[in-house]
Amino acid sequence: MTLTLADARSVIAAAEAKAAEIGQPMNIAVVDAGGNLVSHVRMDGAWIGSIDISINKAFTSRAFDIATKDLGENSQPNQQFYGIHASNHGRIMIFAGGIPLTRDGQVIGAIGVSGGSGEQDHAVAEAGANSV
Q1: H/E element, 39
Q2: What's the pLDDT tens digit per position in 26-35?
Q3: Which of 27, 67, 76, 124 has a CA 20 to 30 Å removed from the CA of 44?
């Protein structure tokens, strides 16, 4: 099971609404169950440097089926995933903003958000993830 383009657009719309609510333009990416980009949007005024970060947060979240916030907490020195950010040709993001997307208890993709603080990125990603 994976998500469709229509699903991805719906997830992005919910995330965009949250970003607008908090007044922070964001880059929002959605990947499918295979970690492949389905859709991406760069809101007006969002940093261009965050495009790649949002896509990689979505990839990371799907690759390990974990919120990047949680992966980040477990990848600090003396933690079980220390050094993981160097894997996968440097695509692994270890800060907040990536969340797996689930349907009927199965991971169908992930959302990645970048452009604000870690807290803001996570909140916007959460809004998108909750729309599935």
Answers
A1: strand 37-42
A2: 999 999 999 9
A3: 67
